[in-house]
């Protein structure tokens, strides 16, 4: 009997990539980063001796045409879409109170990405045993029409992991101890998508925090999220290089090898969620981009606070 794919479980890694170069340890190297060794079987030119500005790498990810999706490694990232720098996020728009039947709601737009959040509660759950604090339930859904490639309706493994990250970022900010035996339901729907899944999670955290504030739920402070992706760049002196881009577009995120999500409460200077997915070769750059994301969350916090102030 053949094994069937169980969508309720994580059956394996979400992204697997075919290695293009053998990873070796160079004699006399002062760093732990892997070096690039030329694979003669693939007939690739040594990137160091090439004067090209970018190199196309083949991955095991298959596209709609059942062909491998190429990953681009560039030499220079000074030019980005929308004339942004590598550490500059896109402008964000927040509108509060769009769903009249919800206790609180928010619409967030950043570039072409649009998502809506509705909060219901706090409300008492019948038949539930007494608990000293409220229960937070987060539902994260991708609309079937949110991307060029149509999504299947319903939840999948990726939606559950995204909802878990949003819940992890919101829990430290909500005074659940003041609402015993209550339930707070947060519904997030991605309407249009122009970033990575990690980018949608960061924006969802910001929108959910604004919706919770409109619902009158007591919080320690507003939560804002920002994300960055590591794009492979051409090797320098035989060592692997990565360039971190803050708030990547969907095209930039398609070539990323790592994603970083940082969610903070700027009013208290606290970090509620820090998630790094994928390999990071230089933790000095990770610290630098983390500081840039903290600054980005401070700007998003002020935008959200102004939207709530206008509502009052």
TrEMBL record:
Keywords, comma-separated and alphabetical: Cytoplasm, Exosome, Nucleus, RNA-binding, rRNA processing
GO biological process: nuclear mRNA surveillance; poly(A)-dependent snoRNA 3'-end processing; rRNA catabolic process; rRNA processing; U4 snRNA 3'-end processing
InterPro entries to which the protein is assigned, alphabetical: ExoRNase_PH_dom1, ExoRNase_PH_dom2_sf, PNPase/RNase_PH_dom_sf, Ribosomal_Su5_D2-typ_SF, RNase_PH
Subcellular location field: Cytoplasm; Nucleus
One GO CC term on file: nucleolus
Pfam families per record: RNase_PH
Segments forming domain Exoribonuclease phosphorolytic: 90-218
A single GO molecular function term of this UniProt record: RNA binding
Broad class of the protein's primary localization: cytoplasm
Protein name: 3'-5'-exoribonuclease
Similarity remark: Belongs to the RNase PH family.
Domain of life: Eukaryota
């Amino acid at each position: 009997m053949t094994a069937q794919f169980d969508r309720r479980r994580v059956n394996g890694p979400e992204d697997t990539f075919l290695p293009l170069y053998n990873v070796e340890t160079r004699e006399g190297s002062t760093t732990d980063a892997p070096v690039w060794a030329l694979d003669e079987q693939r007939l690739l030119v040594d990137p160091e001796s090439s004067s090209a500005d970018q190199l196309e790498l083949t991955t095991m990810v298959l596209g709609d045409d059942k062909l491998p999706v190429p990953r681009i490694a560039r030499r220079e990232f000074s030019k980005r879409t929308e004339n942004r720098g590598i550490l500059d996020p896109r402008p964000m728009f927040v509108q509060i109170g769009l769903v009249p039947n919800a206790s609180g709601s928010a619409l967030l737009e950043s570039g072409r990405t649009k998502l809506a959040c509705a909060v219901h509660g706090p409300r008492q759950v019948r038949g539930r045993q007494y608990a000293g604090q409220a229960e937070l339930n987060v539902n994260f859904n991708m609309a079937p029409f949110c991307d060029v490639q149509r999504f299947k309706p319903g939840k999948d493994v990726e939606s559950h992991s995204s909802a878990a990250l949003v819940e992890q970022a919101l829990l430290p900010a909500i005074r659940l101890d003041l609402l015993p035996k209550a339930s707070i339901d947060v519904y997030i729907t991605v309407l249009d998508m122009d970033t990575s899944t990690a980018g949608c999670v960061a924006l969802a955290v910001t929108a959910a925090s604004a919706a919770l504030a409109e619902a009158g739920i007591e919080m320690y402070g507003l939560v804002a999220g920002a994300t960055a992706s590591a794009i492979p760049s051409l090797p320098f002196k035989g060592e692997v290089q990565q360039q971190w881009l803050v708030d990547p577009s969907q095209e930039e995120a398609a070539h990323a090898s790592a994603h970083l999500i940082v969610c903070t409460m700027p009013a208290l200077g606290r970090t509620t969620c820090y998630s790094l997915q994928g390999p990071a070769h230089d933790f000095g750059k990770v610290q630098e981009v983390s500081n840039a994301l903290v600054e980005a969350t401070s700007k998003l916090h002020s935008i959200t606070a102004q939207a709530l102030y206008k509502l009052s």
